[in-house]
């Protein structure tokens, strides 16, 4: 099974810039999308029912915000929205779908800004989401299944995960408490950072570059888009790639797809 994840930064805008051409050419079996920022009724046919794809879209309760989706080659065996959080289940930030013996989730963890309500929202989300991850791993493994949570986690875990780590220590996305929380996902909850496991000891590979300045041209990026998997599935990961656009003008999002091939 090949799984891709990408924050599209507005699905309709991405479609106008090249997302549909990428979708038509990808070898992925499942594509996880974040920040779709669209309602079902707003999807044109090319996005609502592209040839060869089944589409499951979860919009945000606040129109024009967040939103996640799964595009799958086969129909999902089961779908779950949210993670039993009164505050966040209608926020369009988490979607799970079952395909064979694997549950694939699309996650859009809130971005933050230090000293604002946005950062407080991000912290509340993290506090609610970690216990769910612990519980969900136990559930799927008891059923003989695996789980991978793909998406925009909005946290660079280690210094190797962003270009300018020294200048970002006090910025949301690289705060010590955020990084410590992500360490708990790996160390306490027992999940695996799949891409880092396949790219040990290297800078990046980055998956997000600001539209400001020459961040993309200089590869001044962040690795914030992850495949976070149960250990059994992580062991099946054979290869990974970040599908970075060939040039700035060929980008259809400020993120690039992160694709992993999982062996049977």
From TrEMBL:
Binding site for Mg(2+): 7, 35, 152, 154, 254-255
Keyword vocabulary terms for this entry: Hydrolase, Magnesium, Manganese, Metal-binding
Site annotation Transition state stabilizer: residues: 154
Site (Important for catalytic activity): 225
A biological process term (GO) from this entry: DNA repair
Catalytic residues identified in the record: 108, 152 (proton donor/acceptor), 255 (proton acceptor)
Keyword Magnesium in record: yes
Cofactor binding summary note: Probably binds two magnesium or manganese ions per subunit.
MF terms in GO: double-stranded DNA 3'-5' DNA exonuclease activity; metal ion binding
Superkingdom, natural source: Bacteria
Cofactor(s) essential for the protein: Mg(2+); Mn(2+)
Site (Interaction with DNA substrate): 255
Pfam family, one: Exo_endo_phos
Keyword Hydrolase included in the entry's annotation: yes
Limits of the Endonuclease/exonuclease/phosphatase domain: 5-255
NCBIfam families attached to this UniProt entry: exoDNase_III (TIGR00195), xth (TIGR00633)
Family as reported in the entry's similarity comment: Belongs to the DNA repair enzymes AP/ExoA family.
Listed name of the protein: Exodeoxyribonuclease III
Native organism: Marinitenerispora sediminis
